[in-house]
Write a structure and sequence with these properties.
Length: about 525
């Protein structure tokens, strides 16, 4: 729409022109009105209209003076002059000021509409011409910038004059690089749309000269971005631009240089940062003040035994305890990065580690047989992670899900153990026997039992036996009979156990009868 401002000292004229003319149908819109030249100048700077319709005679500043002031700010501004009477001298001045038309009041609607149509056509032509000129200029700037970035120092110096003539003159220069990549399941069309949206934003905001170089979308900034606040704002803007496209970005800033011939060094630094992005712990826009050795930053303060880390991960899985896994995976990743492993080597390590752990667990837990197939796709996604942080987090998430399967298997085995104890407490039950039946290592099964019940196996068995003994004693059975019934072949041993848990001897407890309720044992 072509923006219009109406300037006249008569309120009726301003209102009449605003309301009576079908501006919208001609692609015009009235953005404001003014009662005199001074007000018009003030509003012009705020509204930036494309067409000013102004009375030629107004108090303080007449229409001709207003035109001269406006022409100083915008030589391409379209102007229509209104006059209450025919005045040849004013008409000549209006023509000299390159007004688009001179209309007598009362304004003839058809005549005004005719002027507006001509102005619209002219404005459209000018707009197209301006777009073409800007496009050619931008293309020329992009070609020169790309040559400056990829050429030798001598070639850059030879291009300096051309660059400055294209408006690339600045006190400081800086390169911004942005890499766009698909989220899982998205296609290349989405990334292409994201690139177009990104370039359009850079051009609309007039942030500098955009360029495409290799896989990078770049920007020669006309105002350097420095400091945390500016980088955070840039990161938020990039996220907003790409919102809804399911496309992620990586961005880096080269260092600030003071000559157009040195922008290649800023570009090289920005490119280096993108290449080592995988090892950068910081999220958002990477910048040149970050450590030169980003891998070294990931090291842990104390010596790390990677074999010990792997064993701890396995035992955590085997015990069905997911809590320590994220930190252990992070420590392993930091160790590999600090010891010079490449991105692909680290990704391969975690894929093989997870595969090996699941296979080893499947041998010990037959119910886990075939579970590796469930996580094949998740393991493959490790290779798509763009940073060490995301990689170790994803690896930990896989193993934490595996523990849920292990936990279900172990829960079933523990339930069998508890049922067996409560049914067979009078037999010579031993942890070793149950471990053999359930296909567990003795010590390992003992740990599982302790984690689940809070008691050691023998302590739990004793408590079950004593509770059953209390019931039998209340029913009037003799002490030696009860001892045999609950699994104690030695009556003296039964006596000591009973007194330890109940606080009194079996014979005294038998005599107490109903008073036994106060001696409940917590199992």
């Amino acid at each position: 729409m072509i923006k219009v401002m109406i300037v006249d000292d008569e309120p009726k004229v301003r209102e009449g022109l605003t309301m009576l003319i079908p501006w919208d149908s001609l692609d015009f819109t009235v953005v404001g009105t003014a009662a005199n030249g001074f007000e018009a100048l003030e509003k012009y700077n705020e509204l930036r209209p494309n067409l000013v319709v102004a009375d030629i005679r107004m108090p303080g500043m007449d229409g001709i003076q207003l035109i001269e002031k406006l022409r100083e700010q915008d030589a391409k501004l379209h102007i229509l002059i209104l006059s209450g009477y025919a005045d040849f001298d004013y008409a000549k001045k209006a023509i000299a000021s390159r007004a688009d038309g001179y209309l007598l009041k009362p304004v003839d609607e058809d005549e005004l509409m005719s002027y507006l149509e001509r102005i619209r056509q002219k404005w459209l032509e000018e707009n197209e011409q301006q777009k073409w000129t800007e496009s050619v200029l931008e293309s020329s700037r992009e070609r020169v910038v790309k040559s400056l970035l990829t050429g030798t120092k001598e070639e850059a110096e030879a291009l300096e004059t051309s660059a400055l003539s294209l408006g690339l003159s600045s006190k400081e220069y800086q390169i911004l690089l942005v890499d766009l990549y698909m989220c899982e399941g998205e296609n290349h069309t989405t990334v292409g749309e994201a690139v177009e949206r990104l370039q359009a934003y850079f051009e609309q905001m007039k942030l500098g000269v955009t360029f495409k170089l290799y896989s990078h979308t770049g920007l020669l900034l006309n105002k350097p971005i420095t400091g945390l606040q500016m980088r955070q704002e840039l990161s938020r803007n990039l996220e907003g631009i790409l919102n809804g496209l399911n496309v992620k970005f990586s961005a880096s800033l080269g260092h600030v240089v003071r000559s157009i011939t040195e922008i290649s060094t800023s570009y090289v630094k920005a490119k280096e940062l993108l290449e080592c992005e995988f090892f950068c712990a910081d999220e958002g826009v990477m910048y040149c003040d970050m450590s030169k050795d980003t891998k070294a930053e990931t090291h842990v303060n104390e010596p790390v035994d990677i074999t010990s880390i792997e064993e701890q991960i396995y035992y955590a899985l085997d015990l069905g305890n997911p809590a320590p896994i994220p930190e252990l995976m992070k420590t392993a990743g930091d160790y590999l990065a600090a010891n010079g492993r490449t991105e692909q080597e680290i990704k391969r390590y975690f894929a093989e580690l997870i595969t090996g752990l699941i296979s080893k667990l499947s041998v010990r837990n037959p119910d886990l047989d075939g579970i590796l197939r469930i996580y094949t796709e998740s393991i493959a996604h490790l290779y798509q992670k763009r940073s060490l942080f995301l990689l170790t987090r994803h690896a930990a998430e896989i193993l934490q899900k595996v523990t849920s399967h292990i936990d279900r298997c172990q829960h079933q085995d523990l339930k069998l153990m508890l049922d067996m104890i409560h049914r067979n407490y009078g037999d010579n039950l031993k942890l070793e026997t149950l471990a053999g039946v359930l296909n567990y290592n003795n010590a390992y099964l003992g740990k599982l039992f302790k984690n689940a019940t809070g008691e050691y196996f023998n302590t739990y068995l004793d408590k079950v036996r004593i509770e059953q003994a209390k019931r039998m004693l209340q029913e009037g059975m003799k002490v030696y009979q009860v001892a045999e019934k609950v699994g104690y072949t030695n009556a003296d041993y039964f006596h000591s156990k009973f007194k330890r848990y109940v606080g009194t001897s079996p014979s005294v407890y038998r005599k107490q009868g109903e008073g036994a309720e106060k001696h409940q044992i917590s199992i």
